[in-house]
TrEMBL record:
Domain MaoC-like: 166-265
PANTHER family the record matches: ENOYL-COA HYDRATASE CHSH3, PEROXISOMAL MULTIFUNCTIONAL ENZYME TYPE 2-RELATED
GO MF entries: (3S)-3-hydroxyacyl-CoA dehydrogenase (NAD+) activity; 17-beta-hydroxysteroid dehydrogenase (NAD+) activity; enoyl-CoA hydratase activity
Superkingdom to which the source organism belongs: Bacteria
Keywords (A to Z) from UniProt: Lyase
Domain Peroxisomal multifunctional enzyme type 2-like N-terminal: residue ranges: 20-150
The EC number(s) this enzyme carries: 4.2.1.-
Enzyme kind, highest EC tier: lyase
One record GO biological process: fatty acid beta-oxidation
Family according to the record: Belongs to the enoyl-CoA hydratase/isomerase family.
InterPro entries, per database record: HotDog_dom_sf, MaoC-like_dom, MFE-2_N
Name this protein carries in UniProt: Putative enoyl-CoA hydratase
Length: 289
């Protein structure tokens, strides 16, 4: 059986120690397209070691990049779960920050399988991660939803009902981000080596015309657009950020992010303008300071 719910939910959390330097941060932020206009002093602060700023979404790759030594092979195997890599997509992501992320640092990161939802045509594997610094101070927590096509129907719960929606008014701000055709090839060096994002023949076997951009790249690109466009360039103002990956993006396409602000809550909707504004991120919210 590809998913053994009992084994998956009773598995001990895996704990790893991660460390990173400003080089990992710069490579990650270059992988999001930062620095394209490097003559702009504000843009340089994302990609240059002097005064380097760290996007909160760096949490998703901390300790997994080139300076971790060996880039991990892509796989989808954990206790009670063994799924063909071609069947999985990143379905959703949330992140809560408990402290600003330093540009050089270390963390103890604990990951557990929190739940597996049965969506009939698919299973959604919910992974929860908690990171603390080496003195035990909380740094961040995350929730990742992995969509496993064809793995539903095992008689599990469908999970909570989540209501989508954006306010019934024009957005307060619309932000535009571009990506390059090599975006995924740079982004993957921060740790996610899934061939779906690089290898045309693998992408075809997974049902796509061409390699698609990592969901977490879109996640970071939209976070950066909001930090630059709404939060005066200050990444420490992001308290939490949650999205559903509603549609794939191909490297080279752009992202239009509509933002509605109600006090400290932002509602976001990201679409691809080159494909009739087809949805990229939905169910997207950000709490800010
Ligand atoms: C390892 C890979 C890494 C990557 O980075 S991959 C790249 C990033 N990710 C993507 O490109 C995925 C983009 N999203 C999609 O293509 C689609 O979007 C999905 C295939 C994930 C789902 O679409 P559909 O098959 O049409 O499902 P439905 O009919 O919209 O929904 C069926 C049920 O599933 C729930 N659901 C849909 N999306 C998600 C999600 N992302 N997380 C959790 N639940 C989801 C719905 O609500 C509903 O539920 P209810 O039947 O109970 O009403």
């Amino acid at each position: 059986m590809a998913i053994d719910l009992e084994v998956a939910l009773s598995a001990e959390p895996t704990v790893r120690e991660a460390s990173w330097t400003d080089r990992d941060v710069m490579l990650y932020q270059l992988g999001l397209g930062a620095g394209v206009n490097a003559l702009d002093p504000a843009e340089l602060t994302w990609v240059y070691e002097k005064g380097l700023k760290v996007l909160p979404t760096f949490a998703m790759v901390a300790g997994q990049g080139v300076s971790a030594g060996v880039l991990p092979a892509a796989s989808m195997s954990m206790p009670g779960i063994d799924i063909d890599l071609r069947k999985i997509l990143h379905g959703g992501q949330s992140l809560t920050l408990h402290a600003p992320i330093p540009s050089t640092g270390a963390a103890r990161i604990s990951t557990r399988i929190a739940d597996v939802w049965d969506k009939g045509k698919a299973a959604v594997i919910v992974l929860e991660t908690a990171a603390e610094d080496l003195d035990g101070n909380p740094l961040w927590t995350t929730g990742m939803q992995i969509w496993a096509r064809g793995e539903g129907g095992f008689g599990g719960s469908a999970g909570p009902e989540v209501v989508a929606g954006v306010p019934d008014r024009a957005p307060d701000k619309v932000l535009t981000s571009s990506t390059s055709t090599s975006q995924a090839l740079v982004y993957r060096l921060s740790g996610d080596m899934n061939p779906l994002h690089a290898d045309p023949s693998f992408a075809k076997m997974a049902g796509f015309d061409a390699p698609i951009l990592h969901g977490l790249a879109s996640y970071g690109i939209v976070c950066k657009a909001v930090v630059d466009g709404i939060l005066d360039g200050d990444p420490t103002r992001v308290k939490n950020y949650s999205v559903r990956f509603a549609g794939s993006l191909f490297p080279g396409e752009s992202i239009t992010t509509s933002v509605w602000q109600d006090g400290n809550t932002l509602t976001l909707a990201a679409t691809c303008p080159e494909r009739e504004n087809s949805p990229v991120l939905t169910h997207a919210t950000m709490e800010i300071n």
